[in-house]
Structure formats: structure tokens, C-alpha cells
Structure of Transmembrane protein:
Amino acid sequence: MDEETGGRSKKRLLLLLLAISLQSLSGLADDPSSSNAVKDEARPSSSSKMDREVFFICLVVAGVVLCSVLLFKLWQKKKREEQHARLLRLFEEDDELELELGLRD
């Protein structure tokens, strides 16, 4: 069940990144300053620079969030395995006590 929710969140994150990148690319293509004189074509406009900066910032933030989620999932898995091992040890000790006390053959 955890794998299903993790897979869904990864798909949503990838869709969000794709939507942001497509939006920024379409914003660059729809730039009205691109139809200006030739001298303007040599220099990117400040809005396209800003679009790129925003896009890269979004990528970095998405990467940090994705890494954080993955690290949290790994930490949860490790804790779960430790608790399971502790539970198994507890029942093993109970079995040994029962054998010593002669309650069980």
C-alpha cells in the first residue's frame, strides 16, 4: 500500500515538473519581444531570463522535496524493520522462558 501512494506522489511530482517546464517553454515561445528588430534577438529579454531563473529554482525546489521524501521513506522503512526485529526478539525470549519453566514441551 505504501508503494502505491509513493508511486502516485512520484507521478504527481513528475507531472507538476512537466507542466512547469512546458509552461515556461511556451512562455518563451510566446514572447512578443521576439518579433522586434534584429538587435533585440541577439540579447535575451529580462523576462526570458526571469522565466529561466524561475524554472531552475522550481527544479531545485522539486529536487530537494523529492530527495526529502525519499529519505523520509527510507527512514520509515528502517524504523519499521527495527521494530519488527525487536518484536521477534521479544517473542523468542518468551518461548525460551516457557521452555525453561516447563510450561511448554
Summary: DSSP finds three helices and no strands in the chain. The CA atoms of residues 81 and 87 lie 10 Å apart. The mean pLDDT is 77. The first helix runs from residue 2 to 29.
